[in-house]
Amino acid sequence: MNQSNIVISDYQKDILQELMNIAFGNATADLTNIIDIHIELSVPDIELLAIRELPEYISETIDTYSETVIINQKFLGDFKGSGLFVFPSSSGHDLSALFEESGFECSQLSGSSLKIEIVMEIGNILIGACVGKISELLNTSVIYSPPQAIFVKENKYDSLVNLFDSSQSVIVMKTRFQQKKGEGFILIITDQDSLDWLKDALDKFMEAYQ
Predict the structure, then answer these.
(1) What's the chain's average pLDDT?
(2) Which of 8, 20, 45, 162 is the most exposed place for a label (fewest CB within 10 A)?
């Protein structure tokens, strides 16, 4: 992987991984408060990538499906970037069924429009809880853009490059989630514009515990 444009120490990476572990746990707890399901999370993984490597990274991360749905939500502040909730279309339908069974209130839509709204709400909950917890732990705050749904055919993720400055590199924080009716990934991606702040914030976080 091309890491020439990002420099982060192993120590800082370890701290960030632990914060992600806390944040992802916070995200699933928030979801469980809404629908009574148990979600298992993998240990968070952190990668340093050039933007052009992002489509291949996601393609290698998930299995091949005829269609994948990605909920993208941007966040702005000292800590800024995009949260991606990535899952096969069939898994999205299964997760939306759980929401409907739980009595979760959505607008009066039907069919595919309702499913899109529901899975966008799932992404909104998980991304918001995850990013919000990281921001809280690092003593800052963020604002969010409305979530957007991206539909990808046959693992063609090149369009994701357009979400970022193609000249930059990114830090990708990933976990896999699994539950009985589906699986997918949560990716938190932040770019070079907030890297200096992030490194300083991680150091200050650890100083408070020394």
Answers:
(1) 78
(2) 162
